Amino acid sequence: MSNGNAHAEGASPAHGHDHAHAHHPALQHHFDTMSQQREAGVLGMWVFLLTEVLFFGGLFFAYAIYRSWYYDAFAAASASIEILPGLINTVVLIGSSLTMALSVRAAQTNQRKATVNWLIATIILGTVFLGIKVYEYADKFAHNHVPGASFQFAHVPAPGEPHVEEPAAGHVTTMGHDEIERTTQIFFSLYFTMTGLHAVHMIVGIVILFIITWMAHKGRFDSEWHAPVEMTGLYWHFVDIVWIFLFPLLYLVERHN
Amino acid sequence: METPVYPAHNYLSNGHTLRSWLLTKDHKRIAVLYLISISAFFFLGGLFAVGIRLELTTPQGDLFQPDTYNKFFTLHGVIMVFLFLIPSVPAVLGNFLIPPMIGAKDLAFPRINLLSWYLYIIGGLFTLFAIVAGGVDTGWTFYTPYSATSSSSNVAPVALGVFIAGFSSILTGLNFIVTIHRMRAPGLHWFKLPLFVWAHYATSLIQVLGTPVIAITIVMLFVERAFGFGIFDPQRGGDPVLFQHLFWFYSHPAVYIMILPALGVISELVSTFSRKRIFGYSFVAFSSLAIAVFGFIVWAHHMFVAGISVYAAMVFSFLSFSVAIPSAVKVFNWAATMYRGSISFEAPMLYVYGFFGLFLIGGLTGLFLATLGTDIHLHDTYFVVAHFHYIMVGGAIMGYLGGLHFWWPKIFGRMYSEFWSRIAAILVFVGFNLTFFPQFLLGYLGMPRRYHMYPDEFQVLNVLSSAGASILGLGYLIPVIYFAWSLKYGEVAGNNPWGASGLEWRTQSPPLTENFTEVPTDIPEAYEYTPKVVREAKLV
Amino acid sequence: MSSVHVSPLSTYLSIFAALMVLSAITVGAAFVNLGSFNPVVALAIAVIKATLVILFFMHVKYSSRLTKITVVMSFFFVAILFAETFIDYATRGMPGDIPPPLR
């Protein structure tokens, strides 16, 4: 191994110098083998995803508590959200997971052009998702469903629903009209925080995808080293899984009335 | 025995430009960067403590406005918890020592390690900004609805700072987990690892599992403050207790992030300065993991009087007793290690002796707080303040200082003044007890925490406490002087001035950038202190 | 050369098809009144979809034991958060609770 003298701090490893063994150009010097480097990278990404599960988990937890408290308000608020954009987004995002998985597979089998093309497809689908989200958010703004000073939720009682002005004391089983209107803000606070956080993760993911696509285009990956594509794939699939849970919980609370 | 020579080529000499430090990937340089920055924040947090203790020397609130006092204890807490204690041992000692202890050249992700430090600095800057902009007065616990709606102070920047610093903590933990799993030298299986490594592994588990939850809590608090969302707002049906559940789900395990690494240090020091294998190695190793896991299921003992159901309180109280058990296991094993060992009184070991008494008291007083009935009387009094300072300062900081004194020769290649280091250790112990023991009595007698004024009959105890704080402060300042002095004038340390076992003592002091010229292959069992080994180690 | 499992194209396509079918079922089931089973069905389908993505798109089925443990641990700790806090929310206001809560 090189000794302290020849190893200048911060210098990029020059591969013309006195390495007795040939190794992959992407091998970082604190690792012994490409396999060790890949395993470390993949484990690192999994540990990061573990933190993300706990991160989103806190939001889902808050959602669960409030849904159990204010079911009627949650149902009413959820019913005011258009299903179709959400469903299209679900298809788009799962589709982007497919294209992402296919790009990893192409990298595994040394197909540079296919890797790039599938990555581009993933970027396009991700962008479509965000575009539809913009449409959905604009709709919510127009209806004054954004929590805060200008929040207004007009609750139209379903036929036969009792018109209860004040909540009963103690354990509330049926929410009153006023209370529904008051507490739908909590639903929408969670809606915007959860989908907003999800969208931020998608934006970061798309930026990373651009970088990885460029690297793939430059031929930096082969069947021996494509861990960055794999790791990006893991991240992207995670973002997809969050949406898989968000969709029914936010859009489909109660639709059978 | 020949006099050691200071090695000409080492990680410190490998580049003298600012760039070579600020863009370093060397875990050892990053550890030194952390050492400098957390020390700075420690003294800043200490300044706020000085303000608190000055105000409390008199029963009246005559030094500061009430709001100002609130800001002082808030900032003291925020800085000490998030910007000092959480990083301290892992970011300084863990970063420096884990790769050599496992025979690796660096951590798994050196650039992410550097990113961790930058995130820590950015988080710290947000907090500094909040201080300059007028401070925060919510208490370090940021309870809603005050923090979300009523407080007019700079909650958002501090929240953001904590969020970013939390990310730093997560990345450090992630780095350690991957490193310990994937980068051990060939033949170095888990049960040959130093207990310091086990302790950091357990700590890293807590960091990656717990910190994200406070991160999301801060996000929710932030959107409530910045956008007027209403997740915790009672006016809109929100539950402030929900904030507390989410907050303490992290913040209780966080106290184990703060103490576990220090416990790892203690294991190393006890073994070295008793010249004996750690008694019950696997018990101590597993107790670290047990503390990490148990630490996650007890959080609501901070909330007994917050409005949770009494049945939940009973469950959490019962579980809180169980978390004391693995800590006790460690203490018994350390005592058994010292029994019939060849114990000595160097500065690192003085911190260990101090630690034993203080950690014991801190831990036992935790049981009073875990008991529902007594907690109702003691909650939010100075009893709680004394309890956690015994653990955090008497435990964690003593462990950190002991470790710093033990590994300073390895990190910088120089010895410091043995005389002054012992004086400082004694001052810290005496000053600490004088500061905080009266606070147990104050709390029991009913003095609430976070109050800037109190009834006259509490003054004597408060004055004793403030006097103790001045001695404690002196005990913390003296090391700054002799450590700085040692960098230039200290005796050259040599590879292994203490005659300790462990791979890190086989390298030169300070080590080369890549730690080892050849990765060691003949790695012995941990803590091999046969007389032959001890004799030979001291000759190296 | 690393020995990483390469899944056949057919695997990815059939998992994708399954995910599409399950998404359709989720929406359809929401329009049927299953009483208190509605959320159970919706969550169960979501869990199945997530499991398919984890096992096949994320290759966990062919990954190391450490990876599998990491995945399980993350959900386990979220479950602790949910379960232990529900103990509080579920028992508030029950007979014998002191003091009687506001809600």
Describe this structure in words.
The complex is a heterotrimer of chains A (257), B (540) and C (103). Chain A has 257 residues and is mainly alpha-helical. Chain A is built from 6 helices and no strands. The radius of gyration of chain A is 25 Å and the shape is elongated. The N and C termini of chain A lie far apart (72 Å). Chain B is built from 18 helices and no strands. In chain B, α2 runs parallel beside α5, α8 runs parallel beside α10 and α9 crosses α15. Chain B starts with 17 loop residues before the first helix and ends with a helix. Chain B is globular. By secondary structure, chain B is an all-alpha fold. Chain C has 2 domains: 63 residues; 40 residues, no CATH class. Helix content of chain C is 68%, strand content 0%. Chain C contains 3 helices and no strands. In chain C, 29% of the residues are buried. Chains B and C meet through α9 and α11 of B and α3 of C.
What's the CATH architecture of chain A?
Up-down Bundle
Ranges of chain B with pLDDT <50 over ≥5 residues?
none
Shape of chain A: elongated
What proportion of the residues of chain B is helical, as a percent range? Answer: 55-70%
Q: What number is the mean pLDDT of chain B?
A: 94
Shape by Cα distribution of chain B: globular
Beta-strand fraction estimate of chain B: under 5%
Based on helices, strands and strand pairing, what is the structural class of chain B? Answer: mainly alpha
Please give the radius of gyration of chain A in angstroms.
25 Å
